[in-house]
Structures are given as C-alpha cells and as structure tokens.
Amino acid sequence: SISVKNLFYNIPARRNFLKSNPVELRHLLDEFIHLALAHPQLSFMMVQGDEIVYDLAPGKLSQRIIALFGKSYQQQMAACQEETSLVKVTGYIGRPETARKTRGEQFIFVNNRYIRSSYLSHAVSHSFENLIPDGSFPFYVLFIEIDPPHIDVNVHPTKTEIKFDDE
Q1: What gap in Å lies between CA 166 and CA 93, rounded to an integer?
Q2: Which residue in 110, 114, 118, 127 has a CA-CA distance of 20 to 30 Å to 159?
Q3: pTM of the full predicted structure?
C-alpha cells in the first residue's frame, strides 16, 4: 500500500512548487497507470478521498488495458510480437482508424520500466506513415525485453530516459 497524504506539509519551500490539486492528481494517475500496465498480474486500487478511481483485478495485459482505458479498446487493439537474438518486443497497438489527436496513450516499457524515448516513439509513429492522418497519434503499449548490460538507466534522475548501447 502506498498512501500520499500531506506531502511536504512541514517543508514550505517544496510545497510552493506543487501545482494545483487536479494537476498533481493527474501526475499521480499517470504513475499509477504506468505501474498498473507494467504489472498486469497484480491487483491495483487507487482511491482519492472516499472515491475509488480504479479497482483493477489481476489478469492479462489486454484485460488491464481495457480496465484502464475502456471497453472500446477491446476492438481497437492488435497484438504484436517480435523476437530476435538481442531483443523481444510484445504488446498491443491501436488500429490506424483509432488514432487520436494527442500522444497521451503511448507507452513503452523496457524490462518492465516505463520509459520516454523520442527515438522509439518516432519509430512506432513512422510505422503508421500513410495509415493515419498527419497530426494524429497511434495508441500503443509496447514492452521491450533486452539484456540489462545493453542499456543504461542512469541517464536522468527520474529513470524514464535510457540509453541503448546500440540504438
């Protein structure tokens, strides 16, 4: 269980850097979604005040995606899987006709760690070239498994940026 309550109550300098409650809640929701997607075999519950925001049962990744984003995703997801001697990629991508105007639903995990990578995001978006309109972005939840000595996770304090030894 993780409980966040009165964060920085006795450190006014830190408290001054907090944004509004809705913005901070959005940051918490984003982190919750990252953890919930990375570990679909575990149950997760998010409660805000007295309201249950999410109550997720353990299951498969496809079930977790539907539980987080809605039943409409059931028809729009296409499974993908590729394995080489160096890397294994699994996950789900959205069908081209379901592309959105925002990048909000794009998730890449390396060894179950959520990462941000403009290089990998561009590669995925490029694969949709001529399939989706300009200014639209595909949905995807992709997991990359790679031998840890081939990556460096100590690029940024948040550990969301990584470097590959051979991009």
Answers
A1: 25
A2: 127
A3: 0.89
